[in-house]
Design goal:
Keywords: Activator, Cell cycle, DNA-binding, Nucleus, Repressor, Transcription, Transcription regulation
Number of strands: 14
Helix content: 25-40%
Radius of gyration: 32 Å
Shape: elongated
Strand order of the largest sheet: 5-7-6-14
Organism: Agelaius phoeniceus (Red-winged blackbird)
Pfam family, one: WHD_E2F_TDP
Low-confidence stretches: 1-85, 203-222, 235-239, 334-810
Mean pLDDT: 47
Biased composition (Polar residues): 1-14, 791-804
Strand content: 5-15%
Largest sheet: 4 strands, antiparallel
Distance between the termini: 40 Å
GO cellular component, one term: RNA polymerase II transcription regulator complex
Structural class: alpha+beta
Length: 817
DNA sequence: TCCTCCCGCCAAGCA
DNA sequence: TGCTTGGCGGGAGGA
């Protein structure tokens, strides 16, 4: 019977098209349908076709039968039958475009004013609309659902909606943008693109499967509907299918545009985000296809509203359909929008107005606990993945274990984002440092008051108002010098750095080389023990640094050893493994800091790394190192000889992770810190750290966090496995909060290195011309003040696109249809 | 061949 | 129980 029913729709079209000038319709009584005796005879088939047609057709037919002569009906039927059998009629049918949802939406919108008078409410009766537009009810729902998502209509009752027009649109868009930002869509987009890129280079990798399996169930799509006060959401089946509703999907889709720069979103990316990104398309193609279908539906309506426009994005991989935002520019709101949200847990709408931030938190990340910070659902999946990784690791502590690519990607992403935040927060003075570095003679001489710094290794000078103190460090193999940004308070730990450490002569790759390296790197990832604990945060509590129990973790030397396993040069170190392992945890790991390549920095004498470097000793000879902040500090190489510095060891210090992001921190396990090296006393960097954290909205104003997160001692918790329940993302130890991210594994550092290397940040010779950034990957995850800082450095210099992209730069062409 | 998306089945849930 | 609502995916037109 399916075939005849299919034809029924055709007959409907026939009737519709052949009777275009029909009278206005009134709702007729439903005709009694007579089952066809034999659907396969032409006559009975025709009867069945007519009876099976939409109510509109039925009513039209009935009306016609009532008003007109039966002969006319017969004639129509005859014509219909005739045409149904012929090809001619097929050609006279309206094309699909003429029946498109977009066109239908145009017709729908034409019925109502954009800005209806508030005093005069327009009501929408679905029956009327379906009749007047000669369309099935189902299609109207598609339109209305999308319009509802923008609060252009709202449901009043069965069959009845209120038309609001565009009055609420600016407010809605602003709200959506805010929610989108808090939902970290931009980061999700980054991750998806990164993963795509991974896949390009290694399509057959079993990592994909692993990646897929490591993700949990789809929770991403379970997002609540963002409401505005006064525009109440009264969907019929509110509790049942709301989560998958076209409304929510539509809102999410709009959010993607609002948070993206440029405001172009490909269907593929949007679909993945809507699915939740945890379902690899390979594994669930049907789901992906379904999402795409729905997105087309939504896009058609949004296009009719002139909010988006279809374009094509041409990348290396080909031409992809995408949409470009053409709606009003949504400016960052200067005041908190009062929103209401309906949580996904079917709780009643929040009655009282709350600030958008709170609202978003409640709406997007419904949680049961008291914690102020909640983990985004997408991160829960990642945490699961991380847990899986850790289980693998812990089950086989000595054998190489692959960390899932998802985990890896998340780590890289977090580090890079954090690092970019760090860079963006550099003071103007620090920016001047880079210029000073290229011309040492221009560096002012040290003041006597700063002389004590000389006693510190590496010439690290305490800077009273700077969080970091750069130290130039030449890298003999790459010929590129690096500035190490260290906490002055950490400097003393350098002297006790394990002699087992060595320079990691990793190839000095630019950013475009990351991917190819990644494939290898991922295959040689060695065991990483996950010990980092995480707890729920309590930002309002005291944040004073506290001495924590000593961590039972992999020693720094072990970590170094593992790093070295990936390298051919590491054989020697491997042989020394037993020695390394014999070292106790009192060995102090090289303090956290940033190693920034100074490609244009010249030194009178290039430092050389002799073959000793393989044994972990690097002679840095005949070079005076300076701390540009405080001036030239003569630093005889002899003083440095005792220091073993892993040239590529980039340990991001004071990584600033959003509370949601930090949920993934445990994978960055391996804290090789010990209590002896920890200084819990405030140091000059703490103020800067706190300023930054407050600045980007990670902690409330007035709240202080310890300055040396990596040096905080995080006790190994036997319950460290139980992290999924925790939606908090910072460490809570007896009421103390530290934003702690432990020292990342070497391959993470390597990624950061690549990223840093790609920056033109420290190249004063290059004019920092603003370049067209095809895809801005560094939108701030949160905090209204951070956005400008990321697009422009504090001294006004613009970051180049190369520096902005941490995904290898991809040519992106946008063509409009 | 792939993109686009119409179309309608059918289930959830409301009145 | 009938009706409304809307998720979902087959499959066809179009590029």
């Amino acid at each position: 019977l399916k075939s005849p029913l299919k034809q029924a729709s055709t007959s409907q079209l026939v009737l519709t098209e052949r009777q275009p000038d029909c009278q206005p319709l009134t709702t007729p009584p439903k005709p009694k349908e007579t089952p066809p005796a034999d659907p396969w005879t032409p006559t009975s088939n025709l009867k069945m076709l007519i009876s099976a047609a939409s109510p509109e057709i039925r009513s039209r037919e009935q009306r016609r039968q009532l008003s007109d002569s039966s002969s006319e009906v017969l004639q129509t039927k005859h014509c219909l039958q005739e045409h149904l059998l012929g090809d001619e009629y097929e050609k006279s049918q309206p094309s699909r475009k003429e029946k498109s949802l977009g066109l239908l939406c145009h017709k729908f919108l034409a019925r109502y004013p954009d800005y209806p008078s508030p005093s005069q409410k327009s009501y929408i009766c679905l029956d009327e609309v379906t009749e007047e537009l000669h369309v099935e009810r189902r299609r109207i729902y598609d339109i209305v659902n999308v319009l509802e998502s923008l609060h252009m209509v709202s449901r009043l009752a069965r069959n009845r909606y209120v038309w609001h027009g565009r009055h609420n649109l600016p407010q809605t868009l602003q709200a959506l943008k805010k929610v989108g930002e808090e939902n970290k869509y931009i980061q999700q987009i980054q991750m998806i693109k990164r993963r795509e890129y991974e896949h390009e280079f290694d399509p057959d990798s079993e990592r994909n499967e692993e990646m897929a399996s490591s993700f949990g169930s789809s929770e991403q799509s379970e997002m609540s509907f963002v409401e505005l006060p006064g525009v109440e959401f009264r969907a019929a089946s509110v509790n049942g299918r709301k989560y998958k509703s076209l409304r929510v999907m539509s809102q999410k889709f709009v959010m993607l545009f609002l948070v993206s720069t440029p405001q172009i979103v490909s269907l593929e990316v949007a679909a993945k985000i809507l699915i939740g990104e945890d379902q690899l398309e390979d594994l669930d193609k049907s789901k992906f296809k379904t999402k795409i279908r729905r997105l087309y539906d939504i896009a058609n309506v949004l296009s009719s509203l002139k909010l988006i426009k279809k374009v094509h994005v041409t990348e290396e991989r080909g031409r992809k359909p995408a949409f470009k935002w053409t709606g009003p520019e949504v400016l960052p709101n200067t005041q908190d929008i009062k929103l209401e949200a309906t949580s996904t847990t079917c709780s009643p709408p929040i009655s009282e107005s709350i600030t958008s931030k709170e609202q978003c938190s409640k709406a997007l990340f419904p949680s049961k606990g008291k914690q102020n910070f909640t983990r985004h659902s997408s991160l829960i999946k990642l945490v699961k993945s991380i847990e899986n990784d850790r289980r693998k690791i812990q089950s086989a502590p000595t054998s190489p274990v692959k960390i899932s690519a998802s985990t890896y990607l998340l780590i890289i992403f977090l580090l890079e984002t954090s690092f970019s935040l760090f860079l963006s927060q550099m003071t103007a003075e620090e920016m001047q440092v880079k210029c000073a570095l290229s011309s040492p003679e221009a560096v002012p001489k040290p003041e006597p008051s700063q002389q004590p710094a000389l006693s510190q290794p590496l010439g690290v000078c305490p800077a009273s108002h700077s969080s970091v103190s750069p130290v130039i460090l030449p890298h003999p193999q790459s010929g590129v010098s690096y500035a190490i940004y260290l906490h002055p308070s950490q400097a003393h730990t350098v002297t006790t750095y394990s002699p087992g450490f060595m320079l990691q002569p990793l190839p000095c790759a630019n950013v475009t080389g990351i991917k190819s390296n990644n494939s290898k790197i991922l295959n040689i990832i060695t065991t990483e023990e996950g010990d980092t604990q995480r707890g729920q945060d309590e930002p309002t509590k005291s944040l004073a640094a506290e001495e924590r129990p000593e961590m039972k973790s992999e020693t720094s030397s072990q970590r170094c050893l593992k790093r070295s396993q990936a390298l051919p040069e590491s054989n020697l170190i491997k042989r020394r493994k037993s020695d390394e392992e014999s070292l106790d945890t009192s060995l102090t790991f090289f303090p956290s800091g940033y190693l920034i390549p100074l490609t244009h920095c010249t030194h009178g004498n290039k430092a050389e790394c002799s073959t000793k470097e393989k044994a972990g000793v690097c002679s840095l000879q005949h070079t005076a190192y300076s701390s540009p902040i405080t001036g030239v500090i003569p630093m005889p190489a002899s003083e440095l000889k005792t220091v073993n510095i892993p040239a590529f060891h980039i340990t991001p210090l004071n990584i600033m992770l959003s509370p949601n992001s930090i949920a993934a921190a445990p994978v960055l396990s391996n804290s090789c810190l010990n209590s002896s090296s920890t200084s819990s006393a405030p140091n000059p960097s703490s103020s800067a750290l706190n300023f930054m954290l407050q600045h980007i909205g990670l902690i409330p104003a007035g709240v202080q966090v310890p300055a040396n997160p990596p040096l905080q001692h995080v006790p190994v918790s036997s319950q460290s496995e139980n992290i999924s329940h925790s939606s908090g993302s910072t460490n809570v130890q007896e009421g103390k909060v530290s934003y702690n991210i432990a020292t990342p594994p070497w391959w993470v550092e390597w990624e950061v290195h690549n990223f840093v290397f790609s920056l033109q940040f420290l190249q004063p010779k290059e004019p920092q011309e603003p370049q067209a950034v095809t895809e801005n990957f560094f939108r701030t995850p949160g905090g209204p003040n951070t956005e400008p800082a990321l697009s422009a450095n504090s001294d006004g210099t613009q970051r180049t696109s190369q520096g902005t992209l941490y995904i290898p730069q991809r040519k992106l062409e946008v063509s409009e249809d």
